[in-house]
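This part of the workshop introduces the protein records we will be handling. A record pairs a protein's sequence with a compact description of its fold. Comparing a sequence with its tokens is the quickest way to learn the format. The record below serves as our worked example for the rest of this section:
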Amino acid sequence: MSCRIALQLYTVRDHMQTAEDIAKTLEAVAKIGYQCVEVCGWGVTGVAEMKKMLDANGLTVCSTHCSFTDMQNDLAQVIADHETLGCKFPGIGGMPGEYRGSAEGFATFAKLANEVGEKLAAAGMSFCYHNHSFELAKFVSCGATAGKTGLDILCENSDPRFVKNELDMYWVQHGGGSPVAWLTKLADRTPLVHWKDMGITPDMQQFYAEVGEGNLDWPSILAACRAHNVQYCIVEQDTCPGDSLDSVKISFDNMKAMGLS
């Protein structure tokens, strides 16, 4: 299975403050060469108008970041919105704060995510969980979770049919993990991967870099993505040094040079 390049539109949020801005930005993204995007909310447009703008620029939606509260309380609307977008991978950008502090919290969230994911699966969709680095913290409590990371607990307490992963390469590295090892460990339950590079300053300050401009081992990451059936390699850069559209073009061009399409 080939890995397709996509863009998390959060990266260019500074260009998407009005409906007119959004239309212009989607046009610019398409001109760079992106064909797929990940949507983080519908902004000021609403989902139907967003879909029209995407269609006008030949862009498809590979995945989203939604509110987990909405998924729990109004899943029918979430499903309807994703049907409008033609999107099979609704996801969340992170775990609600109340579950993060303990192994028990991770296990509880895993069960709740599993319930949502099972309902989404019945609608032909897959729930995807996007990590940061706090999921790489290890818990020292006694019992079955002793010494395991939060991400281990989340995955072990959820069904891979219903809870998929969107592994963020920067945040795995930030948490002291190996991106390749985690891609291998989670194997075929990771259809989405955030391609986000990490640079370092001479005074040891980490920063978000364009893909291929930092220090992550992209040849090995790409090989692991291909080996484990990753469908979308999604550019995300939380902050950019200049114009965000310039940054996403650098990432796109570098990924094309790596052989991605």
